[in-house]
Write a structure and sequence with these properties.
517 residues; alpha/beta; AMP-bd_C_sf; EC 6.2.1.3; Long-chain-fatty-acid--CoA ligase; 3 domains; Rossmann fold; GMP Synthetase, Chain A, domain 3; 17 helices; single chain; 25 strands; AMP-binding_CS
Length: 517
């Protein structure tokens, strides 16, 4: 046993990070959700009990445990419990329809599935032959079937936890991509991947030890999930929100004296629409973190205007990189507003053409990566894994350019680039122009078939409440701000843009015309 404990302590393991924090600050609040608070000592105790229970159900190294949970303390306890017993955590987007959930659970080989009570009927309607046990978080005994046990019942059951030997190269989680171009792919991320990503972030923007952080995006998203480990490393406190309510966010910042907060750009944008925004005391905020989608310049400027004591930390990357690959922080956020920063420490970057040749400074190419945060593989998908790692680098699919100082600028997603009359048009460039208009709340640009030019530009516009614009006014505004061939040929006004759970606009939906007012 002593040798097992020593061996595990020498690895970069998620569970070990919780042990360190519980040893150093046992009585500090680790997580707060509503009126519930859990200290590091309590969190470790409950996570170890859960790990022992999972072991009793046959969960060991590399066995898959899924969850269909919303933000809350059970999610956190399960995350660390699975980590401690060497299992592989599979968080699932609870906004998916039943068939999508069925595909992910079956493809990932999940054998135990934790769910919210509200999803019981959905789970009953699908075929999950490999799942031997379902654990609803809150459920009356009358609702339990033979293959179910309620979450709290686990803690009234004796459970002995046994230390197991595994390394930081073992799988820690399988995070499924959004599947905007087909079936979602499961990115296998190791303990080392997550640990190094956390260390990278803390290197680029070190928070105060013990800092209080507000997390609102769903924890199944890789960026929000990574905050659980980071919180242990700084021995901080995370306040969890179950859903995004802008006025409640502002009140929480004021009441809890929140210091740092991560949100996707769309959330920041909606936060600024609260009528009495400036009546709240936001002075405690020192770090405004954003990522998950390309951020319009106007939103960055607004963040710095509203949170006067805070600096921006913009992270850019993707699920397969655990997720962050570049950071923009401090004075550079003001000096290089349009950039996503420089490559993260421990992440190697190249910008290449189709033949894997490095492109000259200032020219557009695909950004590719190497380093210890790079995923292990796509789960049970050798063909996709081989394609992603061709040439020995992970191919992001993002088109970027680099300036003379090494700062990176995202031009667009490779698959979103529009080719009209032989000219490359990058939607993000036009979207930035549209976001700058005082009457426009949101905008998305896609290419649509055009018999003469191959593709034409179409813009989808969401106006601010009470504002009105015509199609001609939008096109004229664009023509005054951008080259004529880049301006939209068609405009569609919408009440809202279709987004996935991580805040990314679903351009595939827009292209298909499936999203109607």
């Amino acid at each position: 046993m002593e040798q097992k404990v020593l061996s595990m302590s020498q690895q970069l393991l998620i569970g070990e990070a919780l042990k360190y924090a519980a040893h150093n600050v046992p009585e500090r609040d680790a997580f707060i959700y509503g009126d519930r608070r859990i200290t590091y000592r309590e969190l470790l105790t409950r996570s170890i009990h859960l790990a022992g229970w999972l072991q009793a159900q046959g969960i060991g190294v590399n066995d898959k445990v899924g969850c269909l949970l919303k933000n809350g303390l059970p999610f956190v306890e399960l995350y660390f419990g699975v980590s401690l017993c060497g299992g592989v955590f599979v968080p699932i987007n609870f906004r998916l329809v039943s068939k999508e959930i069925e595909y992910i659970v079956n493809q990932s080989d999940v054998t135990i599935l934790f769910i919210e009570e509200e999803f019981i009927e959905s789970i009953r309607s699908i075929n999950l032959p490999q799942v031997k046990l379902i654990v609803p978080i809150k459920c009356g005994d009358s609702e339990l079937q033979t293959n179910m046990i309620s979450y709290e019942a686990i803690y009234s059951t004796p459970a002995d936890y046994e230390e197991v030997n595994f390394t930081d190269e073992h799988a820690h989680a399988i995070i499924y991509t959004s599947g905007t171009t087909g079936k979602p792919k499961g990115a296998v991320l190791t303990h080392k991947n997550y640990y190094m990503n956390a260390m990278n972030k803390l290197y680029h923007s070190p928070p105060r030890k013990g800092a209080k952080q507000l997390i609102i995006p769903p924890l199944f998203h890789v960026a929000a999930l990574s905050s659980l480990l980071q919180n242990c490393l700084i021995e901080g406190t995370i306040i969890l929100h179950r859903e995004f309510q802008p006025d409640i966010v502002l009140k929480t910042i004021q009441d809890e004296k929140i210091e740092t907060m991560f949100m996707v750009p769309a959330m920041w944008n909606f936060l600024f629409q609260v009528p009495n925004l400036l009546e709240y005391d936001l002075s405690s905020m020192t770090n405004c973190a954003l990522g998950g989608a390309i951020c319009p310049i106007e939103i960055k400027k607004k963040i710095l205007q509203v949170f006067k004591n805070a600096s921006i930390l913009e992270a850019f990357g993707q699920t397969e990189m655990s997720p962050s690959t570049t950071y923009l922080a401090g004075e550079d956020a003001l000096r290089k507003t349009e950039s996503v920063g420089k490559p993260s420490i421990n992440v190697r970057v190249r910008i290449v053409d189709e033949e894997m040749n490095d492109v000259p400074v200032g020219e557009v190419g695909e950004i590719v990566y190497q380093g210890p945060t790079t995923m292990k593989e796509y789960y049970k998908n050798k063909e996709a894994t081989k394609e992603a790692f061709k040439g020995g680098w992970f191919h992001s699919g993002d088109l970027v350019r680099m300036d003379e100082e090494g700062f990176i600028y995202v031009v667009d997603r490779k698959k979103d680039m529009i080719i009209s009359g032989g000219e490359n048009i990058y939607p993000k460039e036009l979207e930035d122009v549209l976001y700058a208009h005082p009457d426009i709340l949101e905008a998305a640009v896609v290419g649509i078939p055009d018999p003469q030019w191959g593709e034409a530009v179409k813009a989808f516009i969401v106006l601010k409440p009470g504002k009105q614009m015509t199609e001609e006014q939008v096109i004229q505004y664009c023509q005054n701000s951008i080259a004529s061939y880049k301006k939209p040929r068609a405009i569609e006004f919408m009440e809202s843009l279709p987004r996935n759970a991580t805040g990314k606009v679903l351009k595939t939906v827009l292209r298909k015309g499936a999203y109607q007012l």
